[in-house]
Specification:
Number of strands: 2
Distance between the termini: 8 Å
Order of helices and strands: HHHHEEH
Radius of gyration: 18 Å
Strand order of the largest sheet: 1-2
Structural class: mainly alpha
Helix content: 55-70%
Shape: elongated
Largest sheet: 2 strands, antiparallel
Strand content: under 5%
């Protein structure tokens, strides 16, 4: 496997890893957001049961994952239509080698294995 392909796979896999955990979602689950301007959200969180905070936390995590997808979708458009190249360590990433950045992200989140 060439270096560019390996770097591309590592990038997508890291984004998948990131999409499975989010600081804000974890804080909501715990019932407290530790930011200086978080009094209002913390007041709301205190009113929720553990189960309701879990539901809100999962919603936030889904929104976080959706945002990653949306960014990858935009990058896919730029690389396909705008002729943009993405490179890491001087290696151009083969963003068109598999199913497209956003689809590779979703596939890997769902357990899809990389093909050779």
């Amino acid at each position: 496997m060439d270096k560019g392909t390996k770097l591309y796979q590592d990038l997508i896999d890291e984004l998948v890893k990131m999409s499975r955990e989010c600081v804000d979602a974890n804080n909501v689950k715990k019932g407290s957001v530790p930011y200086s301007d978080s009094e209002e959200i913390n007041a709301v969180l205190q009113k929720l049961s553990d189960k309701d905070r879990e539901i809100v936390s999962e919603f936030i995590l889904g929104a976080y994952s959706s945002a990653i997808f949306d960014v990858l979708d935009l990058l896919e458009w730029y690389t396909s239509c705008g002729k943009m190249k993405i490179s890491i360590e001087g290696e151009t990433l083969p963003t068109d080698k598999f199913e497209g950045m956003q689809n590779d992200f979703i596939g890997r989140r769902d357990g899809w294995e990389w093909t050779e």
